[in-house]
Amino acid sequence: MTASIQAEIERLRAELRHHNRLYYVEAKPEISDLDFDRLLKSLEKLEREHPEYDSPDSPTHVVGGEAIEGFSQVLHRKPMLSIDNVYDEAGVKEFDVRLRKLLGPAEQVEYVVEYKIDGVALALIYERGSLVKAVTRGDGQKGDDVTHNARTIRGLPLRLMGEDLPPVVEIRGEAFIRNSDFARIRAQQAAAGEALFANPRNATAGALKLLDSKLCASRRVSFFAHSLGYTEGVEYATHSELLADVARRGVPITPQVKVFDDITAAVAYCHELLENTHALDFEVDGFVIKVNHRDQREKAGMTSKSPRWAIAYKFERYEGVTQVESISVQVGKTGRITPVANLKPVEIAGTTVSRASLHNRDEVTRLDLRVHDWAIVEKAGKIIPHVVRVEVHRRTGEELEWTYPTRCPECDSELVQDEGKVDIFCRNPACPAQLRETLRFFGSRSAMDIEGLGIKSIEQFIDAGILTRLADVYRLPERRAALLELDRMGDKSIDNLLAGVAESKSRPLWRLLTGLNINQVGTRTAQLLADHFGTLDELMAQTPDQLSAVPEIGPISAEAIHRFFSSPHGKSLVEELRTFGLNFGTPRPAEATSSATAGKLAGKTVVVTGSLTRFTRDSIKELIHEHGGKPAGSVSKLTHYVVAGEKAGSKLDKARELNIPILTEDEFVKLLE
To answer: Which fold has domain 2-63?
Structure first.
């Protein structure tokens, strides 16, 4: 009987550890929270009835034990250093230059990109697989022993999984409180008449300093691992191997980590992550870029304050508090339905914000956002605003739950959701909203840059039946008489529009690819594809595997591109545009795969400043790109040329200070000839 009870206790512990790993590490839960709690209560009962089988690493001990009298200081066996910060792309590139000087020109460097979690640094020390101590960063040399509270961290194993457990391994990372839990905590504080925490980081720091671990458990602190400290009997050749092994042992790691072959791709991924921070339920204030290989880290070394092989690429965060007046949906150019929060106007980072995208139905559910809620709205890096969390404590009972529509608000077609996907679409190809948005984007400066084809004109043309599909843009010259019958369309405005249509036929291939409205293809991807394949016909002939072989083109993008050009819609659109003589590109020489390998500006960074007379800002950037260069927004030691127009200001001053060649527009043109 005794043996069977002990076996049942061990079985329950193993099962709970398994489900903890699925939930916190792999994000693939198999059972509900209720079923998990039932298993936990069964184990608690058995351990209470048979204390002789209790174990300090049992999952039951994460719920909080007895309060302690105070904190002791612990000396870090390996200092917990900070990482140097930069706030722009130029700073990251300078870091890369410094590093390569340390490593030597022959070294091939791999970079790892991770989120910089805005939490509290914590070191977890495991001996023979059991958690024996948890220590805060403190002053970097010594910190507070918060082991009793760390044992309550959600998803953190008290015993590492697997065999071959090392004698000592110190796992370092960030403790944090999720936004959804933070909103709940503030609501509880408001109900109790207590002062409210200012932000999740302060709430986390306060939780770890509580003397009663049961109170810490109620805060629902989480943890992501990002590195190792002092270890015995364990060594990894790369950082990516380290993270994979830490996750294998049941410790949650920083999500969405990727490895890149060069700094440019690493920075591009940072920008991609920044655009999607709205989907995170935790606070980030930037990204950490690290050298992947341990031997290169050792060669680069450390300063007294920070490692030379890592940099924090941070962004400024700007927040405002405002009320949600209503929630509506808009139809995009792909038919994707996007919910939008219509806000009481609030000033954030110098601009008035009155709308914020809610991205998809799951986002509204995750935020538990309701009409008339007060919410925190953020602009990370001064980009598109998004709702971070709801001020639950300010609810009055007058808030209204919002129901997602089942039919398109523009054409009344039934909305559909693909199995396993979060986005919802209107699939009606004749939906006027999709046509409107497709035409607006096609004619925009980001794509074909057609003067006179603005949203007001497009709406008029659609209503009059002049534009019924994308290729009709190039039929406008045939429909001049019909255009003259419309309001605000005189001879001069029509001439300007038709001249813009004619000019757009000679736009470079990447602009056409951007304007075709292909899923996963923006300006950067379009430029990569045009550079690599040269012609639209060559691009259309590629398989998904061939497309994903292009640097920076992932398998999801490759599949989307191939699907578009293989579809009846894609094929017919391309053939229709071919009849109007649009620029489908120029065949690449056999030895060239990128325009960046040739051209007068190959590998050069060019900054444009001041008022120009020969170019628009977009056209000169396009010219820089066509000649293999890279347009940049700020001057640094990595800048090769500055093109200065009239009334050039601080950028020109900095170029002079750094002795960077300064060109007039005429000198720039002469350089390219």
So the answer is: Helix Hairpins (1.10.287)
